[in-house]
Write the structure tokens for this entry.
Amino acid sequence: MSGIFADRTTINSENRLAEMFGGNLGKDGIKFSAGNPDPELFPVTQIKKAFNNAINEYGNQIFEYQTISGFKKLRNYLAQRTIHTEDIKATANNILITQGGQQALDLISKLFLNNGDGIVVEAPTYVGALSAFEQYNPCYYDVTLKEDGLDLEQLELLLQAHPDIKLLYTIPDFQNPTGVTLSLNKRKKLVKLAEEYDFFILEDTPYRDLRYKGSRLPSIKSFDHHGHVIFVSSFSKILMPGLRIGWITADKSIIDQLSKLKASSDLETSGILLTALNQYIEDNNLDTHIVEMLPIYQKRLVTMLEVLDEKMPADVHYTRPEGGFFIWLTLPDVIDTQKLLNETCIPKDRISFVPGKVFYAHKNRRNSIRLNFSGVNEKQIKIGISKLAKSIESVITANKVETLL
Amino acid sequence: MSGIFADRTTINSENRLAEMFGGNLGKDGIKFSAGNPDPELFPVTQIKKAFNNAINEYGNQIFEYQTISGFKKLRNYLAQRTIHTEDIKATANNILITQGGQQALDLISKLFLNNGDGIVVEAPTYVGALSAFEQYNPCYYDVTLKEDGLDLEQLELLLQAHPDIKLLYTIPDFQNPTGVTLSLNKRKKLVKLAEEYDFFILEDTPYRDLRYKGSRLPSIKSFDHHGHVIFVSSFSKILMPGLRIGWITADKSIIDQLSKLKASSDLETSGILLTALNQYIEDNNLDTHIVEMLPIYQKRLVTMLEVLDEKMPADVHYTRPEGGFFIWLTLPDVIDTQKLLNETCIPKDRISFVPGKVFYAHKNRRNSIRLNFSGVNEKQIKIGISKLAKSIESVITANKVETLL
């Protein structure tokens, strides 16, 4: 029965997501490889109460089949929140609830991508997005990420050369994996390009509310007047990932199409989860919860940057994010960070990170590292980053010696 | 931006699932169109307790990211249950938890179907399965459903003519929409055909445990010794649909491929749901719960058959299921049941059913009706089916008059 699987499974065979997670670090190991919020910050007591209250209020009804697009009260809340915090016009009809942000990416890919269709992605970009897109065999065009986000000159040349490009995927705020934020001017310009070259922008914003410094920038979608932007967000980083709840905000015509695909993919998201989440939001203040988390993550970010500044060799460069979960390290070209991870960091230092190559559509760059700071405490950061710096220094020195020889 | 969507959206444009549900019936309307279990039978108190116990026991851990394949204890339970009730060898590694049966169908389609690949379906078959398959633009081959299931002679001719057929989809027990059950001999023969013609059988079993009469038949998968059968089931009908939890049982090599696609599609199913479900199963007896529901559904089925026997015109034929949720009516060829529904049953009788055409891959038959008996009580059945019989009689008579004129 060889060859019986669809073509997409061969493309998928590299299994990007599985590659992300390092080997066994043992009890004292320090994981900089994760992408998760700190579970100590989850409002477990309030969520437990929310499940109870939701079941008490709605009884057996919430265990029946519900609606494809998701619990109306929750969609109303999300629409209101979108209006107030994002300056985007929205009603419940502009919202589709999804199984976390990941399903949003899957459904949007399903909606747009025929085999071989063009999609622009940042280089580097979120590995889970690549994994979603690859199910539909797209043609990737990657655009360099600068300190202020996408290189728009490079993008425009691409758009001129490939008028078939349908979709552009970007994480404008504290990007995963780099922590980079797209500048205000570039946000405006990007929407103009979408109008001129007739493509859709998939604006993915899981970290948007987790800013520790500087001022919030308007979303790309807030500049969109002709329906070219599809805005995706999630409760995974601001509340808890285990609920698996995200949402899409877009023109009704797009939401209607996506809802049909959602129905065919999994019918609907669990009513009990959505009702409980809505109950949590009614009984608590989500924004207060977010604000309370900020100083904790901020301190971890500041600590990590301090240790990096102090310990890293001069030829290692890194981003200085204003929010999110990640810092991105660029090592000298000759260093293969996968090798560094497997040969030194995991077995000797018992620390993990994600080697940069998995974040490139074409996997052609091997000298970068994604570090997570949200899931580790300051002590772990100090110990772990010091070890990492030492190991990087050794491999740079060894390499220089080799070159001299 | 016309034509910007993927081809699958045009094919999907008929929106099979949306077509299923009739218009507004008002307060006293009687819905034979649903496909749901009776919410009065949901063990809400026990499930509420299970959520509490799960959160008490596992705390914030269950709100973190979990594993792609789903909570290990639950997969262990499902593997044990599969061994004991189905005589199928299985460990947790043979199980993938999905968002209800619907996601199982989506993932299996994703795994096998390239554009234009051949898939055999029953005529008629489950509309949600068609809706899942159509996302991948397959080539449908349909096989007539007889009183004892698939017409295997017709199937074998198809297999000879189309060696490219990859997949066959069947609901062997109390099929949706017909209530028909595949005979024992045909189950064995089907596996032999799969081995001979090298295709996979997708055995979908949501109603399997809901038998009200006669003896349980072995699953198709229990005759499978070379990994040709993928067994799908769900908690939606035997417990509650709102949990959105189903599972796939298959060879590890298939489960591994499906898990990758699951990760790319929605990462994982919510940990809190799976832990709570597992808690329910640990603290209660699922099989006892199922056994307690059987006489209630049985009585509804018996009542519906009695009223049909008493009231239906002689040229209306119907199935006599031994389990499940549905009875299938075949009217004289000339009657269009969609028209009957829209013009008479909804506006005048205030009853709904699903017109048979949505259950055909090619939508070429218009004279059948799916009736649900699980979501209505005996009084509703007596009133509603009497009205339906009268309306059918009128349309048959009118039609005869027309023919005479």
Q: What stands out?
A: The CA atoms of residues 27 and 350 of chain A lie 9 Å apart. The longest strand of chain A covers residues 139-146.
